[in-house]
């Protein structure tokens, strides 16, 4: 009888635990929890020493690129990076722009990955208002601390990042400055052309860093 | 050497005089048109402060009336970086291990104490000024002329902001705006305000007084190359990810300085 009880209790505990984790992973994660989950996953990929090999790096990049969609709202990010001209763009132009821009970000930032060096992320503050949130963090690197802040938007019960601000430099605003600069002289079509050219150059490895 | 300083001051004075006219140029029709539509729905600014006034002052269009000059020197500096300074830094860091390079960095950092001290005083940060002074005394004596940074990472009795200040930041603290963006050959991005600040800092930099002048240039160049070995890759990650590197660097400079001024 006693054994049955203990087996039963273990079973209940197991079911409870698995339900619990499903519940957490499913919905209602706070912005900080979402980021923590994302950063933990990235760290798990980067801790693997295989990142240092050519094929391992490619695998890691693929893995991270797939993950990115779960943590970033690329359409929101692109819309804000483009700014006002977004209003003049057709649906087709917008989709194309989002795809090309995402490609550019992935190609440049993911190429930079290297093995994780025990950088510690400290979450200092979380601000939530309606479907917007901001999470402030400090990244402790080898000999200095960098501030990295995230802006998030809530969609279907999930928080997605739409801007990353490292040391006061906003990703969205930095690109907006660039797009503005180009749009002062060229048309929207030329800007998209330029983005595409940059992406294909990166893909063929022409701009590869010789480091 | 003095001629160089005079020249810098002359340029700065000229620019100061022309600043109001040029600043107006910066927000031409193109600048006005590009006002960010999607900032209207932002709740916080980039540092997490609640935006109380709509279209907060933080995203003001950067004034860049001297774009021709700036772009020319940006291209020149970029070529110099990739063609000369980066290869030298890479070769140097290949030969000299990291620890001695850290000693060199600490030595020059310690030597720049007057710039930081005056910057702290100008902003009324007497705590930070005091801390910088104690650091300078300790590192200059038992720290073997600043080679060892004995105070690094040590907790203070109460929290004191770092004393990483200069004259440009002090002017910013006093409410003086950036003025036009300016790129200088070899020295890189700056603004009118920070350029004037740099002239002041020049006189507070001990290595400026080395005689004859080429020793001064050599010492400063060596400091720059040595520091660069710790920063290789930072410039590249900004420029390679951008489709208009000039605008990307300009934005990054302005934002980084704004952060330093606010600290």
From the alpha-carbon coordinates, what is the Rg of chain A to the nearest angstrom? Answer: 21 Å
CATH superfamily of chain A: Tgt2/MlaC
Q: Under the CATH scheme, which architecture of chain A would be assigned?
A: Roll
Overall radius of gyration of chain B: 20 Å
- Work out the count of structural domains of chain A: 1
Number of domains of chain B: 1
From the spread of the alpha carbons, the general shape of chain B counts as: globular
The major pleated sheet of chain A works out as: 5 strands, antiparallel
**Average predicted local confidence, pLDDT of chain A:** 81
Q: Mean of the pLDDT scores of chain B? A: 77
Q: Can you count the helices of chain B?
A: 11
User: What ranges of chain B have pLDDT less than 50 throughout 5 or more consecutive residues?
Assistant: 17-36
Number of strands of chain A: 5
Q: Approximately what portion of the residues of chain A adopt beta-strand conformation?
A: 15-25%
Helical content band of chain B: 55-70%
Describe this structure in words.
By secondary structure, chain A is an alpha+beta fold. Chain A has a single domain (2-204), classed as Nuclear Transport Factor 2, Chain: A (Roll). Chain A has helices at 2-26, 31-47, 54-71, 74-82, 91-111, 171-183, 188-203, and strands at residues 120-129, 132-140, 145-155, 158-166, 169-170. A five-stranded antiparallel beta sheet of chain A has the order 1-2-3-4-5. Chain A is globular. In chain A, 23% of the residues are buried. The model of chain A is unreliable at 16-26 (pLDDT under 50). Chain B has 263 residues and is mostly helical. Chain B has one domain (3-262). Chain B contains eleven helices and two strands, in the order H-H-H-H-H-H-H-E-E-H-H-H-H. Chain B has helices at 2-26, 29-33, 67-95, 98-111, 113-122, 126-141, 167-173, 192-204, 213-228, 234-240, 245-262; strands at residues 181-184, 188-191. Chain B has a two-stranded antiparallel ribbon. In chain B, helix 7 (167-173) crosses helix 8 and helix 7 packs across helix 11. The longest helix of chain B is centred in the first third of the chain and has 29 residues, at 67-95. The radius of gyration of chain B is 20 Å and the shape is globular. The model of chain B is unreliable at 17-36 (pLDDT under 50). Chain A binds chain B through residues 79-80, 83-84, 86-87, 104-105, 108-109, 112, 125, 127, 129, 132, 134, 136, 147, 149, 151, 165, 167-170, 173-184, 194-195, 198, 207, 209, 211, and chain B through 30, 33-38, 43-44, 46-48, 59, 62, 232-233, 236-237, 240-244, 246-248, 250-252, 255-256, 258-259.
């Amino acid at each position: 009888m006693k054994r049955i009880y203990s087996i039963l209790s273990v079973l209940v505990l197991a079911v409870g635990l698995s339900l619990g984790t499903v519940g957490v992973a499913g919905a209602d994660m706070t912005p900080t929890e979402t980021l923590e989950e994302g950063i933990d996953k990235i760290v798990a990929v980067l801790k693997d020493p295989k990142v240092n090999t050519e094929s391992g790096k490619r695998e890691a990049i693929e893995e991270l690129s797939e993950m990115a969609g779960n943590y970033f709202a690329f359409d929101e990010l692109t819309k804000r990076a483009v700014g006002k001209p977004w209003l003049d763009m057709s649906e087709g132009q917008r989709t194309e722009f989002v795809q090309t821009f995402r490609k550019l970000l992935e190609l440049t930032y993911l190429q930079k990955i290297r093995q994780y060096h025990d950088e510690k992320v400290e979450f200092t503050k979380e601000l939530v208002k309606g479907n917007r949130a901001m999470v402030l963090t400090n990244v402790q690197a080898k000999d200095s601390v960098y501030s990295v802040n995230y802006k998030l938007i809530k969609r279907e019960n999930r928080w997605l990042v739409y801007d990353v601000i490292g040391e006061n430099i906003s990703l969205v605003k930095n690109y907006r400055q660039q797009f503005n600069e180009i749009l002062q002289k060229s048309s929207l079509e030329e800007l998209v052309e330029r983005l595409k050219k940059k992406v294909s150059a990166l893909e063929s490895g022409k701009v590869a860093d010789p480091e | 050497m003095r001629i160089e300083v005079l020249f810098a001051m002359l340029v700065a004075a000229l620019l100061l005089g022309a600043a109001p006219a040029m600043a107006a140029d910066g927000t031409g029709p193109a600048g006005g048109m590009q006002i960010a539509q999607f900032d209207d729905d932002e709740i916080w600014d980039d540092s997490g402060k609640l935006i109380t006034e709509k279209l907060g002052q933080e995203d003001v269009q950067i004034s860049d009336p001297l774009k021709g000059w700036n772009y020319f020197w940006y291209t020149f500096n970029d070529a110099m970086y990739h063609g000369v300074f980066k290869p030298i830094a890479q070769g140097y860091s290949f030969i000299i291990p990291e620890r001695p390079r850290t000693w060199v960095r600490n030595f020059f950092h310690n030597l720049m104490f007057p710039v930081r001290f005056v910057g702290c005083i100008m902003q009324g940060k007497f705590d930070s000024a005091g801390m910088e002074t104690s650091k300078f005394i300790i590192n200059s004596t038992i720290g073997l002329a600043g080679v060892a940074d004995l105070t690094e990472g040590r907790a203070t009795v109460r929290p004191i902001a770092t004393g990483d200040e200069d004259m440009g930041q002090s002017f910013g603290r006093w409410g003086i705006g950036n003025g036009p963006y300016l790129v200088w050959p070899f020295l890189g991005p700056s603004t009118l305000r920070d350029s004037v600040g740099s002239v002041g800092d020049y006189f507070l930099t001990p290595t400026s007084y080395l005689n004859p002048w080429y020793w001064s240039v050599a010492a400063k160049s060596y400091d720059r190359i040595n520091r660069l070995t710790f920063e290789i890759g930072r410039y590249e990650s900004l420029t390679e990810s951008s489709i208009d590197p000039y605008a990307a660097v300009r934005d990054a400079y302005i934002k980084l300085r704004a952060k330093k001024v606010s600290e």
